[in-house]
Amino acid sequence: MQIERDGIRIRIARQVLSPAFQTQSHTQPVSASDTSAAPGSSPTVATIPRHSIRAPLTGVFYRSAGEGEPPLVSVGDLVEEGQKIGVLEAMKTFNVVEADRAGRIVEVAFEDHAAVQSGDVLFVLEEAG
Q1: Quick one: pLDDT at residue 67?
Q2: Which residues are bridge partners to 4 per DSSP?
Q3: What pTM does this model have?
Q4: How far apart are CA 59 and CA 55, in angstroms?
Q5: Who wins on pLDDT, 7 or 28?
Q6: In degrees, to the nearest 5, what angle opens at C-alpha 27 toward C-alphas 58 and 80?
Q7: Can you tell me the distance from the alpha carbon of 61 to that of 104, in angstroms, rounded to the nearest whole number?
Q8: Which residue from 14, 25, 84, 91 has the highest number of Cβ atoms inside 10 Å of its Cβ?
Q9: CB neighbourhood size of 121 (10 A)
Q10: Cα torsion at 99, 101, 107, 110 (round to 10°)?
Q11: Around 11, how many Cα atoms within 13 Å sit in the side-chain half-sphere?
Q12: 27 alpha-carbon distance from chain centroid
């Protein structure tokens, strides 16, 4: 949306997520590392269950617990259910974002201090097994 009045232009845009991030839980095909396959045959394809952790409310997303501190989690980290993985600030109130299941972080969808909408995917988890 764009508004222009008296030489002042205001533009508001919403970040559009790829279709892969618009479902709560999805699977991603991954090639298996089976080196014994016959030449010319297609590799075995396995699916690794993935789960999206979404923003519970609209606000500012923080990857760390406080200014100058390292991120709570990064890609590749194993997390437990209930573990603090981010913070959302809404109306000067800080709300903890927790992992709703155990797994490995495979994607962090937003950078620190990003404005997010309720329902936006914040993290993608892969079952650790």
Answers
A1: 86
A2: 9
A3: 0.63
A4: 9
A5: 7
A6: 60
A7: 20
A8: 84
A9: 21
A10: -30
A11: 2
A12: 15
User: Left (φ > 0), alpha (ψ -120 to 50) or beta: where does 35 sit?
Assistant: alpha
User: What are the DSSP calls for 51-86, one per residue?
Assistant: EEEE-SSSEEEESBSSTTPPBS--TT-EE-TT-EEE
Q: Can you give 8-28 as a three-state secondary structure string?
A: EEEECCCCCCCHHHCCCEEEE
In the numeric block, which tokens belong to residue 16? 């559009």
The span from the CA of 79 to the CA of 104, in Å, is 6
Cβ contact 119:55 at 8 Å? yes
The token pair that represents 38 in the structure block: 């016959």
Residue owning tokens 């508001």: 12
Identify the band that residue 30 occupies on the pLDDT scale cut at 50, 70 and 90: very low
Higher pLDDT residue, 63 or 25?
A: 63
Stronger pLDDT, 13 or 122, i.e. the higher one = 122
The residue with tokens 């709300």 is 95
CA angle centred on 80, ends 79 and 82, rounded to 5°: 115
